Amino acid sequence: MLRDRIRCQPLLDKLCTADEAAALIQDGMTIGMSGFTRAGEAKAVPLALAERARKQPLKITLITGASLGNDLDKTLTDAHVLARRLPFQSDPGLRRAINAGEVMFIDQHLSETVEQLRTRQIPPVDIAVVEAVAITEHGGIVPTTSIGNSASFAILAEKIIVELNLSQPTTLEGLHDVYIPSRRPARMPIPVVTPESRVGLPYIPVPPEKIAAIVVSEKHDSSSSILPPDDETRAIAGHLKALLLEEVRQGRMGYDLLPLQAGIGTIANAVLHGFLDSPFHDLKMYSEVLQDSTFELMDAGKLTFASASSITLSSEMYRKVLPRLAEYKHHLVLRPQEISNHPEVIRRLGIICINTALEFDIYGNVNSTHVGGTHMMNGIGGSGDFARNGYLSIFVTKSLAKNGAISSVVPMVSHVDHTEHDTDIFVTEQGLADLRGLAPRERAISIIRNCAHPDYREQLEDYYARAVKRGGHTPHILEEALSWHQALKETGTMRR
Fold first, then answer.
1. CA 222, chain centre distance (Å)
2. How confident is the model at residue 202 (pLDDT cuts 50, 70, 90)?
3. Hey, which of 134, 198, 323, 325 would disulfide with 171, CB 3.0 to 4.6 Å?
4. pLDDT exceeding 70 applies to what percent of the chain?
5. Given its phi and psi angles, is residue 80 left (phi above 0), alpha (psi -120 to 50 degrees) or beta?
6. Which pLDDT belongs to residue 267?
7. How far apart are CA 253 and CA 279, in angstroms?
8. Contact criterion met (CB below 8 Å) for 488 and 405
9. DSSP codes of every residue in 188-218
């Protein structure tokens, strides 16, 4: 079995234990690890590294594609391995350490990390740790369920540790399209012109001599914790379908729409699930993550092709999809995240971008990352890459949080990730605000009227009316603009 998977025979001599491979990682190093939204992360080596750090303390900078599964961020945090972490995470334990200032977290657009590595704007990767399903005859690394930043980590690192995961099916080979942009300032255009475009290699090309260790593992990816659609997410999907039907009626697109992108999480997945009951057909995706809804739409004959950087599924969907991967493979491609999220490609293809907000304000500014303006949740991820460059920049959220104590629509967001210049459409279960062509005063009226929950609508109308009396292109009462967040902190609710 190993000879079938490690086809570059001299590399069989590099087989070792996870402890032996982890010993290559030294204090102060920068480590690039595979993994994107709980998919395709190295699993044995980081656990061995954490165990070693409990006996021999060390600190590293850890760079990944996005979040890791199998509680790896928690384990590394508990072992005090992480000095610095980027560009995205979703673990509650690591989040606490970040907000306590124990781990320095750099929140980046997911398309930018390897650009900074390539130009040495941030310290270089010493060792790349990459999960693989196989190694080709010439040493090429075949990734598993994600590419993320793995290709550039492996190409730029001094050494590579490969985790060969025998639990991942060999049918993954051929799914990937590894394309690395040429160097600036003479960079050629990225030749992705449709979601189906294949422009690179089905493996990560590296010299075999860079592979310092190969560790065999059999641990599965973590499943996603996506919840099924509820009445509110179905309402959000309904409003969004009505918007897109109007786009069709206006002649701006056909019933096959333009390529779709959806952020990770329950709400975005439920919104795409809503396309099952719609007149749209022959849909395509150009996104970061393929979730349950992707395969539901394919099975229903609604979706014909999907491009992303990872596959992250619920446990039930994993059991359905992996055995049938050979059937799906001709309709899928996984790319490096700097290509799946590249502004050039997003702008060229005209993506319909659907992402989730923590909160947004009456003028269309979005907070995706910080609770109360100070405490990091997960990170901006790829939402900014898509929001600024898509054909339609759509943000969705439920209008209330914490059993009604929090309004997701506020006078002024407590932290800005996406400015009003980068947002087009807002949708809650209450309705949809189409802000295209509207000035700030018109945007405020549309958002309050269509998106705010009735429990908070009168408060917002009162704030806006009094702000208008003070004048200004974007009227605000500065001494009150963040008072809702202050009230939440002091009383536990934004309600007056």
1. 16
2. very high
3. 325
4. 100
5. left
6. 86
7. 13
8. yes
9. PPP---STT---SBSSB---GGGEEEEEEE-
Tell how strand 425-428 and strand 431-434 pair up. antiparallel
Closest residue by Cα to residue 305 from 275, 324, 287, 283: 283
Alpha carbons 313 and 321: distance in angstroms, whole number: 9
420 is catalytic: no
Kindly report, residue by residue over 410-456, the tens digit of the pLDDT.
999 999 999 999 999 999 999 999 999 999 999 999 999 999 999 99
Q: What is the pLDDT of residues 18-43, one digit of tens each?
A: 999 999 999 999 999 999 999 999 99
pLDDT tens sequence across 262-319: 998 888 888 898 999 999 999 999 999 999 999 999 999 999 999 999 999 999 999 9
Residue type, 20: E
Which tokens sit at 427?
Answer: 């949708």
Tokens found for residue 175: 């799914």
The tens digit of pLDDT for each residue in 473-485 reads 999 999 999 999 9
Closest CA to 260 of 65, 392, 384, 398: 392
For strand 260-262 and strand 370-371, is the pairing parallel, antiparallel, or unpaired? Answer: unpaired
DSSP 371: E
Q: CA-to-CA distance for 110 and 379, rounded, in angstroms?
A: 10
Q: How many residues does the chain have?
A: 496
Residue whose pair of structure tokens reads 């000095």 in the numeric block = 83
What DSSP string runs through 82-109? EEEEES----HHHHHHHHTTSSEE----
Q: What is the mean pLDDT of residues 58-73?
A: 97
In terms of phi and psi (left: phi > 0; alpha: psi -120 to 50; beta: otherwise), the region of 488 is alpha
Contacts of 316 (CB under 8 A, 6+ apart): none
| Cβ(318)–Cβ(221) below 8 Å | yes
Q: How far apart are CA 140 and CA 21, in angstroms?
A: 19
Amino acid sitting at position 258: L
CB 139 within 8 A of CB 176: no
Helix (H) or strand (E) holding 142: strand 141-143
Give the C-alpha separation, 214 to 210, whole Å: 11
Per-residue pLDDT of 130-166, as tens digits, reads: 999 999 999 999 999 999 999 999 999 999 999 999 9
Give me the phi and psi of 406, to 5 degrees please: -120, 130
For 478, other C-beta atoms within 10 Å of its C-beta total 9
d(CA 380, CA 368): 6
- 346 SS3 class: helix
| Nearest residue to 272 (alpha-carbon basis) of 354, 340, 349 | 354
> Exactly one of 163, 173, 288, 359 is catalytic; which is it?
288
For residue 117, the one-letter residue type is L
The dihedral region occupied by 476, where left means phi > 0, alpha psi between -120 and 50, and beta the remainder, is: beta
